[in-house]
C-alpha cells in the first residue's frame, strides 16, 4: 500500500515539461515521417503502378524529410533557447545583489535545467522521422499487386498512427481517444488529398 502511494506521489511530482521537450519532437517526427512518406507513395501510386517508382519516391522523401526535420527543429528550438536564456539574464540583472537569496539561486538553476536542448530535439526529430517513414516504405514492398500495395500502405499507416497516438497520450498523460482520432483523421486527409490531386493531374494528360 505504501509502495503504491509512493509511486502515486512520484507520478504527481514528475516534471512532464522536461519529458515534453523530447516527446514533442519524437512524436512529431514519427507522425510526420509516417504521413509524409505514406502520402507521397500514395500520390506516386495514383499514376504509376511500378513498385520501383514508389520505392524511389519514398526513399528520396525519407532522406530529405529527415534532414529537413532535423534542421528545422534545431533552428526552432535554438531560437526558443536563446529567447528563454535572454529572459533569465534579464531577470538576473533586475535583482539587486542584496536581494538574492538561496531560493533565487535554486530557482535559476531549475529554470536552466528546463531549457530546451536543440541538438537533442534535432536528433529526436530526424530519427523518429526515419522510423515513421520506414513503415509505409517497407509495407509497400510486401504487396505485389498494385491495388493491394496501396491498400496495405493505408491500412498499416492507419494502425501505426493509432499506436503513435496511444504512446504519445500515455507518456504525456493526455486523453488517448482524442490523441488517436487527431492523428488518424489528419493522416487520412493527407493521404486522400495527395492521392486525389495527383490522380487528377495525371488524368489531365500530364506525363509523369
TrEMBL record:
Record carries keyword Iron: yes
Catalyses which reaction(s): Fe(2+)(in) = Fe(2+)(out)
Top-rank taxon, per record: Eukaryota
Main location: membrane
Pfam families: VIT1
GO molecular function: iron ion sequestering activity; iron ion transmembrane transporter activity; manganese ion transmembrane transporter activity
GO BP annotations, alphabetical order: intracellular manganese ion homeostasis
Membrane topology qualifier: Multi-pass membrane protein
Keyword Ion transport: yes
Subcellular location, record wording: Vacuole membrane
TM ranges: 22-41, 53-71, 119-140, 152-171, 183-202
Alphabetical keyword list: Ion transport, Iron, Iron transport, Membrane, Transmembrane, Transmembrane helix, Transport, Vacuole
GO CC terms of this entry: membrane; vacuolar membrane
Family: Belongs to the CCC1 family.
Purpose: Vacuolar Fe(2+) uptake transporter.
Protein's name according to its UniProt entry: Vacuolar iron transporter
Amino acid at each position: 500500500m505504501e509502495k503504491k502511494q509512493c509511486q502515486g506521489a512520484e507520478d504527481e511530482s514528475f516534471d512532464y515539461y522536461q519529458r515534453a521537450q523530447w516527446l514533442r519532437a519524437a512524436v512529431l517526427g514519427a507522425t510526420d515521417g509516417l504521413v509524409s512518406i505514406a502520402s507521397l507513395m500514395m500520390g506516386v501510386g495514383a499514376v504509376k503502378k511500378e513498385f520501383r517508382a514508389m520505392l524511389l519516391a519514398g526513399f528520396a522523401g525519407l532522406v530529405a524529410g529527415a534532414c529537413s526535420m532535423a534542421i528545422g527543429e534545431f533552428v526552432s528550438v535554438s531560437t526558443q533557447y536563446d529567447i528563454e536564456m535572454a529572459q533569465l539574464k534579464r531577470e538576473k540583472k533586475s535583482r539587486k545583489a542584496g536581494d538574492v537569496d538561496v531560493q533565487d539561486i535554486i530557482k535559476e538553476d531549475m529554470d536552466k535545467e528546463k531549457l530546451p536542448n536543440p541538438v537533442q530535439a534535432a536528433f529526436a526529430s530526424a530519427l523518429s522521422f526515419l522510423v515513421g517513414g520506414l513503415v509505409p516504405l517497407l509495407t509497400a514492398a510486401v504487396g505485389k499487386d498494385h491495388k493491394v500495395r496501396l491498400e496495405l500502405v493505408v491500412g498499416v499507416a492507419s494502425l501505426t498512427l493509432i499506436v503513435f497516438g496511444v504512446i504519445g497520450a500515455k507518456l504525456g498523460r493526455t486523453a488517448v481517444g482524442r490523441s488517436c482520432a487527431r492523428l488518424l483523421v489528419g493522416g487520412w486527409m493527407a493521404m486522400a488529398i495527395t492521392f486525389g490531386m495527383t490522380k487528377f493531374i495525371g488524368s489531365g494528360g500530364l506525363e509523369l
